[in-house]
Amino acid sequence: RYGVPPEIVVAIIGVETQYGRNLGRYRVLDALATLGFAYPPRSAFFLGELEQFLTLTQEEHLDPRQTLGSYAGAMGMGQFIPSSYRSYAVDFDGDGQRNLWQPADAIGSVANYFARHGWQKEGLVAFPAQVTTPEAKALGSQKRETPHTVASLKQVGVRSEASLPATSPANLLMLDQVDGPEYWVSLPNFYVITRYNHSVLYAMAVFQLSQ
Fold first, then answer.
1. Hey, which residues does 186 pair with through a beta bridge?
2. For residue 164, what pLDDT band results from cuts at 50, 70 and 90?
3. Is residue 203 within 8 Å of residue 194, measured between CB atoms?
4. Tell me: the pLDDT tens digits for 60-100?
5. Residue 173 pairs with which residues in a beta bridge?
6. pTM above 0.90?
7. Do 128 and 160 meet the contact criterion of CB atoms below 8 Å apart?
8. SS3 210
9. Per-residue pLDDT for 25 more than 90?
């Protein structure tokens, strides 16, 4: 329905909650109130999420005193914060409630999140690369954006065994390993994974687990 590969959805739920085994043990109401009123650096954000949570519990008929999640107020198998829950959760099993603690709704909601953030159906994600020139090495980064193209990376000495579309936006990722840096060409769908969590390492973990 959303054009997102099942293995990507499975990997997200695996990384977030060990496939639903670790859904969080904090009352969401307590977590958001504590962060909203007692954590000045992000008070405005968490007070906004508290408001979103209370609205959500009315919409989905949840008991705000019993709803459990993470220490930061993320909920369900995909760990959606309240604003994301309200914006992207879907009733995938058709029972009239968006319940992210149930697998069907969690699966559909993660897929909807990716589709709404620009996932390209049947698009590629990332491929190992070989860097052959100093100019290419200088482009290596842990930025999640795709400011280059496959063709421009190839011109400066980035090689990949994969057949990649020359005009596709791309980035050269440099990831530290025990024996030195490891390079990957990342494509727009990799960036979409970082919309779920801004960490490039998170996105790579999701992608590799999906494979």
1. 126, 171
2. confident
3. yes
4. 999 999 999 999 999 999 999 999 999 999 999 999 999 99
5. 141, 184
6. yes
7. yes
8. helix
9. yes
Residue 132: both structure tokens together: 């052959």
Q: Which of 16, 51, 135, 161 is catalytic?
A: 16
What token pair was written down for 204? 């790579």
Strand stretches in 90-179, DSSP E: 126-131, 148-149, 158-159, 169-177
Q: Which H/E stretch holds residue 182?
A: strand 180-186
Say whether 16 is catalytic.
Answer: yes
Is 129 in contact with 169 (CB distance < 8 Å)? no
Query: What does the DSSP assignment read for 7-58?
Result: HHHHHHHHHHHTTTT----EEHHHHHHHHHHH-GGGHHHHHHHHHHHHHHHH
Give me the percent of the chain exceeding a pLDDT of 90.
97
Take residue 198 and report the two structure tokens written for it. Answer: 């801004």
